[in-house]
Specification:
Chain lengths: ~300, ~500
């Protein structure tokens, strides 16, 4: 199967049909230079009137509301909401732990999710880039663009991803932040098992005004939702340490894992970011629609 | 159906498979090593560690090893695929190629060709050992081989018959024996082993019945001799004379004849005298002095006497008696027999005497008969019909073999003269009716081949060996993968 065909698999028709009509509306105002569907942090002439304000020296006289002047004998100018294109980055965690799971693996599931998000955002007029974690920080796979054929490039890049090695998610976030020329959106797709400096990196992005949304991808086995028999278990990113255990017989295992992710979600929330929990046994379209419906 | 030559190996294979199963249950198995990204949230469990120790090995590996054990057991059980035998009957023809068939080989060939006319017939030649069974189409090749110089054995023939069963594909087998029924081929154990060697009937096709030598197809009973006078063996004694009508009643022995010869003749029932015989009754003359030679020869020509000539009188034999065999075949000294014995007719006499020196093989001169030869074919006694009588020249010392139990048979053969030698190999006593009945074995009927021995079949060892190799490879691959998974 060619890479082109495989890339088409990342957007199966059923998923596309389920996402039809959905638009991601930025929760925050993001600066852009192309009119789109999102609010710009810089209010100005646009298609939608929002409010009146007193005329100030230097305002464009074309925006004076003469009808209001006639009524009030005071000068007011109209303000408009100007939607501008959003610059977004999809940051995928490609460390070896993301290779866990089968049919699909976590990385594969995240790739499906990233493809769906790219499709929606590009259709909404946003610029979408792709980045992955790497041994030296971030690896920018694709710059943030919105042009003809860019979706196909994104899908091809996603198809080539492999889960291997280790990589700091925090360093990758900082790298993405530097790549964003203006305020934008960072969508993190990871299992978030490496939290070293992560919340600080999220805070830095939020301080710049970037929107940060994390999609936590995990398998039911990792969360303790499916019983595992006894074995000597080891972390793929820490192969030296083994522990003989029977997760199926440890009711607290599930609680401990849940507590970890709850704490992480709380940290995201404190910083104005969002952490969306997803498991690989959930249909991607359904999970995405459920999340978008809450926005 | 599948038949097993060694079914015990199947049991051994099953026991081995059971042993493998027990070993797998007892052997500790290391716990699986599995990746889990959230492993840091696990807690060590001592009970799990104990449980690991009792975990059985991989069931796939266990199944492959048990299967391998079963296949090895089957492999060594000598399995053969034997398709069911067809309806019908196969004829197996036993063709006697022994020395006694030399004079009747042409007749035997013709009989074999007739019997082989039935489709599916197998020919099994035999003599002292069984030959290889050949299909009827190759009968001519067997016939062209002729006879061997060995004495044949009917017991060997019956065992060869059984050995030919794997070549047959039908349910029934009909057995035919082409032979010249004679005592020389009768094995002393045949009476006891007849049923075991071949439980079914045997159709005997007798060739050479009524040939020269006076053999009576109805069989002569040893011991019948209406002309013998004097003390003799009991009736039916095989050592007694088998002379028929016309044999000399009395014997005249030269005064110079050795005493042992006189004693032997008396034991055989001859009335020994030293004076010239009276009357015209056929007389046996033992001539050892030249002076007595001519009168004896004259009587032999006129009255049918038998003249037995020994050295030195043999040197005075007139022509053509002086050339009873060609010149090169007669040693100037007394001809002798090889120490391994003489062949009298078709019967071997194991005479062992240091005075018997080896000679050279020779063929009888035209018209001569050789009633006694060495086992390598060299002449010891030659006979020539002489008018109404017979002249026999004996070339070995009379004393040779005197203490041997076969000595009376030798004397008897010599005194039978021209009547005992009908060809180079001599005649042999025909089987009597009782012996023939035992050989034939009851009413003619086919024998169920499947009950007697294995039929044709295809060996399955090759297939089982290939299967065992495949299973061994599969087991190795699976174990290797498990080990790699464990180490990773």
């Amino acid at each position: 199967m060619t890479a082109t065909a495989r890339s088409a698999d990342l957007l199966p028709p059923g998923l596309l049909a389920g996402l039809g009509g959905l638009e991601i509306v930025a929760r925050q105002v993001v600066a852009g230079f192309i009119s789109g569907l999102h609010r710009s942090p810089f209010l100005g002439a646009g298609e939608e009137f929002t409010r009146h304000r007193s005329y100030q020296q230097g305002d464009d006289v074309r925006h004076i509301d003469w009808r209001l002047f006639a009524r009030t004998d005071r000068l007011y100018v109209k303000e408009f909401r100007e939607d501008s294109n959003l610059q977004a980055f999809l940051l995928l965690d490609t460390s070896s732990s993301m290779g866990f799971g089968s049919e699909p693996s976590k990385l594969r599931y995240a790739s499906y999710l990233a493809a769906a998000l790219a499709h929606v955002m590009l259709r909404a007029g946003d610029a979408v880039g792709l980045a992955t974690t790497g041994p030296h920080g971030v690896r920018l796979a694709l710059p943030s663009r919105n042009r003809s054929g860019h979706l196909h490039e994104v899908l091809l890049a996603l198809e080539r991803l492999r889960a291997e090695g280790t990589g700091s998610l925090a360093d990758a976030l900082d790298g993405v932040g530097q790549a964003l020329r203006r305020q934008g959106r960072v969508l993190i797709l990871s299992d978030f098992l490496d939290d070293t400096g992560l919340l600080d990196a999220v805070g830095r992005l939020r301080a710049r005004g970037d929107e940060v949304i994390g999609f936590r991808v995990a398998t039911p086995v990792e969360l303790g939702l499916q019983p595992l028999g006894p074995a000597r278990f080891f972390d793929p990113e820490r192969p030296g340490a083994e522990i003989a255990a029977a997760p199926g017989d440890d009711p607290q295992f599930r609680t401990r894992v849940a507590a970890w992710y709850d704490g992480l979600a709380a940290g995201f929330h404190e910083r104005g970011a969002e952490l969306v929990p997803l498991t690989t046994d959930a249909p991607i379209g359904h999970a995405l629609r459920s999340w978008l419906a809450l926005r | 159906m599948i038949a097993f030559g060694a079914p015990g190996a199947l049991v051994a294979g099953a026991m081995l498979a059971g042993f493998v199963f027990v070993l797998h249950l007892l052997a500790p198995r290391p716990p699986d090593r599995a990746p889990l990204p959230t492993a840091r949230f696990l807690r060590e469990d001592a009970r799990s560690t104990l449980r690991f120790r009792r975990r059985p090995t991989d069931p796939g590996v266990l199944a492959l090893r048990m299967l391998l054990a079963l296949l090895l057991g089957a492999l060594f059980s000598a399995p053969r695929w034997r398709p069911d035998r067809e309806d019908g009957s196969t004829r197996v023809v036993l063709l006697d190629r022994g020395a006694g068939m030399a004079g009747v080989w042409a007749e035997a060939r013709a009989a074999a060709a007739r019997e082989a006319g039935v489709e599916g017939t197998w020919i099994v030649p035999f003599a002292s050992v069984p030959g290889t069974a050949v299909p009827a189409a190759d009968t001519s090749a067997v016939a062209e081989q002729g006879t061997t110089g060995e004495e044949s054995s009917y017991l060997v023939a019956l065992r060869a018959l059984r050995g030919a069963l794997p070549h047959t594909t039908t349910r029934d087998v009909e057995a035919v024996l082409i032979t010249r029924p004679r005592w020389s081929a009768w094995d002393a154990q045949l009476g006891l082993l007849r049923a075991e060697a071949w439980p079914g009937p045997l159709r005997v096709v007798a060739v050479g019945e009524g040939a020269a030598g006076g053999e009576d197809p109805s069989g002569r009973t040893p011991g019948a001799d209406a002309h013998r006078t004097g003390p003799a063996g009991a009736p039916g004694d095989p050592s007694a004379s088998t002379r028929g009508a016309g044999m000399p009643a009395g014997a005249r022995v030269d005064p110079g004849a050795p005493a042992p010869l006189r004693a032997a003749l008396e034991v055989l029932g001859y009335r020994v005298a030293e004076s010239a015989p009276e009357g015209d009754a056929p007389t046996l003359h033992f001539v050892s002095v030249a002076a007595a030679l001519q009168p004896a020869l004259d009587r032999a020509r006129r009255l049918g006497d038998t003249v037995l000539v020994v050295a030195p009188a043999a040197d005075a034999l007139p022509p053509p008696l002086n050339a009873l065999w060609d010149a090169e075949g007669w040693a100037t000294t007394a001809a002798a027999a090889a120490p391994s014995g003489l062949r009298v007719g078709n019967r071997r006499l194991p005479l062992h005497d240091a005075r018997l020196e080896p000679g050279r093989a020779a063929a009888p001169a035209e018209g001569r008969l050789l009633p006694v030869v060495r086992v390598d074919g060299g002449p010891v006694a030659a006979a020539l019909p002489w008018g109404a009588g017979c002249v026999v020249r004996y070339g070995a010392p009379w004393e040779a073999g005197r203490e041997d139990p076969s000595y009376p048979a030798l004397i008897r053969t010599l005194v039978d003269g021209c009547r005992s030698a009908d060809d180079a190999t001599g005649a042999d006593a025909a089987l009597d009716e009782a012996a023939r009945a035992l050989l034939a074995g009851g009413a003619p009927a086919p024998v169920a081949a499947a009950a007697l021995g294995p039929g044709p079949g295809r060996p399955l060892e090759g297939w089982l060996l290939a299967a065992a190799l495949l299973v061994a490879v599969a087991e190795t691959v699976r174990v290797t993968r498990l080990e790699r998974g464990r180490r990773s």
